[in-house]
Structures are given as structure tokens and as C-alpha cells.
Design brief:
The protein is α/β, with parallel strands linked by helices and 331 residues long. Helices cover 30% and strands 21% of the residues. Strand 3, helix 3 and strand 4 form a beta-alpha-beta unit. The chain starts with 8 loop residues before the first strand and ends with a strand.
Length: 331
């Protein structure tokens, strides 16, 4: 186990800026099937990208890149192109696309699908790809040695026994590109997840932190479920993207994040969520999963709501949509 002296930095991001004049979070739900028109309408409804970009000239797009299956298992290239078009129109000169890689280092996206965008990756087992960040409201990692002792035939045991860089105190290691980004646009999908129940705005940031944090969270599922749910929210609070755009034209039902024989792809959902509030975004996503996936149970929903509560405690938004200015548009 390697130990390196590091000085933690402050976390990036700021409070939600996509608000009404009265201070309510804005959440736009666009219904349609033309992604360019949907992105146009959603961004127009929040007042344009300018309200989150300000004078910055760099934007980082954070898609879901968990696997090599197409949308809705990962973020669609056409959605990223539509958002990139608005970035350029707003004066952005550099668009970075962040890919999270667990094993192989071959890019998920073909660069020809994302013209004018710089695809950069982080390799989750490599601590050098991550920056040590400190925030007092985070719990910190559980003890690695104690976690290993409790494991029997757990696939994460081997990973934890490898040359990991441990973290002390209220710290997380965040992908360097994300920590240093001037503006982040979170671009999740909506799919089932065997551990998180769903993957969407919040859980998209499990792919934003160093592998050790993820492995400890997953390894605790059978012994300390709440630790996993809390860490999921903490990972999102380490990034605090300026905007979330969730593409739910289709969703991945029954099983995920990888596709198996059980997985069902539900077409025709035809929704796009645009907001600065990740908790509100996931509240709408949860409603849609309930509506379209018959296998999604009350137990699944209860776990997701607990994750949302942790995220609210960390100041990431609200699950009470009566406190949100919800704008619904059809295109």
C-alpha cells in the first residue's frame, strides 16, 4: 500500500446558479424526439448557457461512459454535439470530454463522432490521475484493512489489496480534469444499476473519483448499505457541476449498468431534463423509472430516496419539486 504526502485542495464548483429571480431552482423538462430541438428548447428556457459559463472559455462535458454499449447505456454522441454547438455559440474555445476508464484505456467515443472536442480520460486505479480534495462534511473512507478482513469471496478484495493510495480524513481524490475545469456540464442517462438502483445525475460522479473510494463503497453494500448511499452523494458533491442535462429519450430498464439478457431498453420516453439541481433532476428521473420499468420496486425507490436525502444534506439540491420552478415544453 503506497503512502504519499499530499496537501488537499478545496473542492470545485459553487451553489446552483440556474434560479428564478426569486431564488427557486429551475428545472426544464422537454418532451420530443429531435435531440437538437430538445437541447435548443431546454437551454433557451433557462436563459441560455451564458448564465453558467460567464466569462469562461473552457467547458468540460461529463458523459456517462460506464461501458461500450450504445445510448441509453452511455451518453449519446448526438446529444453531446448538440450541447457543444451551444458552447461554441456562447464563445467557448475549448470543449473537453471526460471519460472514466476502469480497465482498458481505449477511448469509448470515436473522436470523429465528437468533432472539435478534446477527449481526455482518467484511469480509476491510477491515483496520479486524481487530485486530493478536502471538505469537512464528507465522512472519509472506511478503514481499508478492516474492509479487507470482512470480505470473503468479494471481487473488490483483490483491488483493495493492490497498491492503492489511501486517503485520510475528510478527503476524496477527484479526477484532475474535473477538479480543474472552469465549467462542468453533467450529461447523464437513466438506467438501472445493481448497486445504486438507478444511474443518473448523482451517480454519474462515481466515475469522477479515484477507484479506491468506489471499491470501498461497493464492498460495503452487504454490511453497511448506508455507507454506499452516502458516498454516492459525496462523490457528486465533490464535482458540483454547473449544469445537468439528462437525456431520457430512452432508458435502460430491469438490469444495469451493463447489458445482460435481463436488460430491457425502453424507447419512446422522449424526455430531456435541464437544470442546475442534480437532486431535482434525479427526482424526475426516479419518477420516470417508476413509470416505465415495471420491475422497479418500492424497495428500489426507497434506496434511491435515501441517496437523495444524503445529497440534500450536502446542499446539492432538493427532492421537493414544489420548491422548484418546473417548466415543461413540447417540441
Amino acid at each position: 500500500m503506497s503512502e504519499v504526502m499530499e496537501t488537499p485542495v478545496r473542492r470545485r464548483g459553487r451553489e446552483n446558479q440556474v434560479l428564478t429571480p426569486g431564488g427557486k431552482p429551475i428545472l426544464v423538462i422537454v418532451e420530443g424526439n429531435d435531440i437538437d430541438a430538445m437541447v435548443d428548447a431546454g437551454l433557451k428556457a433557462i436563459g441560455g448557457l451564458e448564465r453558467v459559463i460567464n466569462n469562461n472559455r473552457q467547458v468540460l462535458l461529463k458523459p456517462n461512459t460506464n461501458q461500450r454499449d450504445p445510448f441509453p447505456s452511455i451518453t449519446a454522441p448526438e446529444t453531446m454535439r448538440a450541447v457543444a454547438r451551444h458552447c461554441r455559440d456562447a464563445g467557448i474555445e475549448e470543449i473537453i470530454v471526460h471519460e472514466d476508464h476502469k480497465w482498458e484505456l481505449d477511448l469509448y467515443y470515436d473522436p470523429e463522432e465528437l468533432p472539435g472536442m478534446d477527449i481526455q480520460l482518467s484511469h480509476s486505479p491510477n491515483a496520479d490521475h486524481y487530485v486530493l480534495v478536502e471538505y469537512d462534511a464528507w465522512y472519509g473512507d472506511i478503514d481499508v484493512d478492516a474492509a479487507i478482513k470482512e470480505m470473503d469471496d468479494n471481487p473488490f478484495k483483490r483491488m483493495l489489496q493492490s497498491d492503492v493510495r489511501r486517503t485520510e480524513g475528510h478527503c476524496l481524490r477527484v479526477a484532475r480534469q474535473l477538479q480543474e475545469a472552469k465549467v462542468i456540464i453533467n450529461m447523464p442517462v437513466l438506467k438501472r444499476h445493481f448497486a445504486g438502483q438507478i444511474t443518473s445525475a448523482l451517480k454519474n460522479h462515481v466515475g469522477s473519483v479515484y477507484g479506491l473510494h468506489r471499491w470501498l463503497a461497493h464492498s460495503s453494500l452487504q454490511t453497511n448499505r448506508d455507507y454506499y448511499d452516502r458516498k454516492l452523494a459525496e462523490f457528486a458533491s465533490a464535482v458540483r457541476p454547473e449544469l445537468t442535462i439528462t437525456d431520457i429519450r430512452s432508458l435502460q430498464a430491469v438490469f444495469g449498468p451493463m447489458r445482460t439478457e435481463e436488460t430491457r431498453i425502453i424507447e419512446g420516453v422522449n424526455r430531456l431534463i435541464v437544470t442546475g439541481d442534480m437532486v431535482a433532476a434525479d427526482t424526475v428521473a426516479l419518477h420516470l423509472m417508476n413509470q416505465y420499468d415495471d420491475s422497479f420496486s418500492l424497495e428500489n425507490e426507497t434506496i434511491v430516496r435515501r441517496q437523495l436525502e444524503h445529497a440534500e444534506e450536502l446542499g446539492l439540491g432538493t427532492s421537493d419539486l414544489s420548491q422548484v420552478e418546473v417548466i415543461e415544453i413540447k417540441v
